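Hey, quick one: can you model this chain's 3D structure?
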Amino acid sequence: MAALPPMSGASQPNALIVGLLLAAAAAPAHAGGLHGRIEVTDLGAVASEDSLDAALGARSRNDLLGDLRLTWESRRSDWDFIVHYELSADLGRAVKLQRAQSVYFPETPPSTLFDLTTTSSADDRTLLTQTIDRLAIGYSAPDFVVRVGRQALTWGAGTMFHPMDLVDPFAPNTVDTEYKPGVDMAYMQWLYDDGSDLQLIAVPRRIRSGSPVAMDASTLALQYHHAVGELGTTWLLARDHGDWTVGLGVGGALGGAVWNVEVVPTFEQEGRPKTSALANISTAMTLLQRNATVFAEYYHNGFGISGSDVAFDALPAGLTDRLARGQVFNTSKSYLAAGMTLEWTPLLNILPSIIVNLDDGSLYTAAEGNWSLSDNSNLILGAQVPVGRDGTEYGGLPASGGSAPYVAPALTVYLQLRRHF
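Sure thing. Here's the predicted structure for all 421 residues.
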């Protein structure tokens, strides 16, 4: 990993913030009623020489990242309250790179109704961001739950891919999946005596910052869970960003394994229906005389393209829109993923994984070691390596036309200290 960039005088306030984050890591766990998590990450990345990153002067880079999350959650009788505050810092070349890349990609539409985030930057190598990531109040009865405000919700049974998860799903290469980004929504759930339940969400959004709330940017969705014999079923009906989406999920046991299948058609306002789907299976086993959990997953992206050598700025509008708002993260149609969690020792887990693009043959490989230092602290070392020729998704799609620069993921190595308190 490359050496950390020296801090200029202009970045001294950011150095103070990072120092405060490090100090918080030393705070006693469960102090008072306030809890939280601290992460400090050293991340190095190297892109190919014909990539867009290289063209923008950041082929190799190193960033020091700090993230502090403070959480307060309380329950009074049938009522619950939740507030999460997050402060993050990025010190390195990725700050300037992200700004330079913005002219090549569509503007990201607002993901939440209210803007509770502020950013500041002393120079091109420093960025501070603070946000209220959870702010919600809820009421629970024996057969009914309602919660209003900024909260997180996950739908579907995907492992790496999440076609049924319409609200801020995790990308397949996300390193930290402990906290999903919060979104302003109203959530209701009805619980039935037979074990089934019905969930309703309403997620109001704006098409762009400052504009009125619009149905073409909002999500209204129902999801119903019901057991049919030994099988669990999930039914989805949604009006999402102006399109109708339906879904059916079925899951069950196969020997000692667990399997799931999801089919999610989307009926766009303009154009033909697009159907996404996944099938996965996971099981626990003994490998090298150690405990392991392994999985395999097939994913079909109904909005993806076939073949390769398609310029990024020539992707279909439906795909581009979903890439911009973070609902879809892949450009091709067919993928196969596999991975495992191997308990090397009781304190050390090893997590290798691979994603294969079945349309163009490119790969995305990752490996992570998670070492438990104490009940509240973990040290994580990982790497993510894209493999593919020019013109493929993981080798790099042309930004425009049919030649360099290519929009390509970089080889990434990271070392992270994570502590809960």
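One thing worth noting: The longest strand covers residues 60-76.
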